[in-house]
Design goal:
Blueprint: H1 27-44, E1 48-52, H2 71-75, H3 94-104, E2 110-113, H4 119-123, E3 130-132, E4 139-142, E5 148-150, E6 162-166, E7 182-185, H5 196-208, E8 211-215, E9 221-222, E10 237-241, E11 254-256, H6 260-271, H7 299-313, H8 326-333, E12 340-341
Helix pairs in contact: 1-6, 3-6, 5-7
């Protein structure tokens, strides 16, 4: 079951602030805030980045971690979540499907996910518009060439351990095949280094965004929890949609306290976008050729974004002297790339 994933992680004492009561805005307030958010999305002209956490998957039957009924909240009481759908049986929520449409229609440019449940993958979301900072249960990665491949079932291991088989890169028409690479699960353990290409894309997109929207996350894990703020000193806006208070509420331009599915439904309605239902035929994990599908971020998308990042950074009006060299700026701003908790 999905909550058993947490049992396989290494022991970690500081799991953050747990079990804070949920808060709900009035119906009138939600309508007003969603209308304001849509205005900002339209003004951004596609320069919108969405940051997703465990809260967007609870309606799929996958429990969150720090909510009143979250995995770690209940663990502290010696209990287990009552709702606990397996990763294989879980299907994308209304939020997952809405984000797919918003991206395809050009309203959302990029999604940065902390989730390992594979629901963005299952929704049919494009890999070149998605960073998975903490991994994906339905992806395995070669220990040598670092290419990633789709699995039809969730990995049984976590922490980037061998999960069976050898690298299949030679099966995809590359001029060179990877000889001897072991396939590892793609899920990070505590304090593991984040995947470099995903992190670089996430950092650049977060910085360039006119609007960063955080959905279903208390933003307690770094560096992912700090990424929505990277556009603030360049005049960008930060919106947080979550049922619990977050560590960055004071820095947000707008906070919407209600279910994320409701927020996405209202946004799509105002933008005239239909939210599709999940279609198994578009789910890479369900395809007859699932085991032959690659899931690696295309290298050219990173290089193209790097050029845009460096070019636009020169035009930003700021009182601070900026280092526009990408690798150095990332090293400077993100001194610690390990996944860990920060109060």
């Amino acid at each position: 079951m999905s909550c058993n994933y947490a049992d396989n992680l290494s022991p970690y004492g500081n799991k953050g602030i747990l079990g804070i009561p949920e808060e709900f805005d009035s119906a009138e307030s939600v309508e007003r805030k969603c209308e304001e958010l849509v205005d900002w999305i339209l003004a951004a002209r596609g320069r919108v980045v969405v940051h997703t956490g465990a809260g967007i998957s609870t309606s799929a039957g996958i429990p969150d971690f720090r909510g009143p009924k979250g995995v770690w909240t209940l663990e502290k009481k010696g209990e287990k979540p009552k709702i606990n759908v397996s990763f294989e049986d879980a299907i994308p929520t209304k939020t997952h499907m809405a984000l797919k449409s918003l991206c395809e229609q050009g309203f959302v440019r990029f999604v940065i996910s902390q989730n390992i449940d594979g629901l963005h993958l299952k929704s049919g979301f494009s890999r070149q518009h998605l960073a998975e900072l903490h991994g994906n249960m339905f992806i395995e990665q070669c220990s040598k060439c670092r290419r990633q491949f789709v699995r039809s079932t969730a990995a049984k291991t976590v922490g980037q351990k061998p999960c069976g088989g050898m690298c299949r890169s030679g099966e995809f028409g590359q001029t060179r095949s990877c000889r001897g690479g072991l396939l590892l699960d793609n899920v990070l353990d505590w304090e593991a280094d984040l995947p470099e290409r995903d992190l670089d894309m996430a950092f650049m997109h977060s910085t360039l965004a006119d609007v960063n929207i955080a959905l279903g996350t208390t933003l307690q894990i770094i560096p992912s929890g700090n990424l929505p703020l990277k556009n603030k000193k360049y005049g960008g806006k930060v919106i947080i949609c979550n049922l619990q208070p977050t560590k960055h509420d004071k820095k947000a331009d707008l906070i919407i306290s209600t279910y994320v599915d409701d927020v996405l439904e209202k946004i799509c309605k105002r933008l005239g976008i239909e939210i599709p239902t999940y279609n198994a035929s578009e789910d890479p994990t369900k395809a007859p050729t699932a085991e032959n599908s690659e899931w690696t971020i295309p290298a050219h998308t990173v290089k193209e974004l790097e050029k845009e990042y460096n070019a636009k950074l020169k035009t930003f009006k700021t009182q601070q002297k900026l280092n526009t060299d990408l690798p150095k700026s990332i090293t400077k701003v993100m001194k610690n790339k390990k996944r860990k908790h920060e109060n």
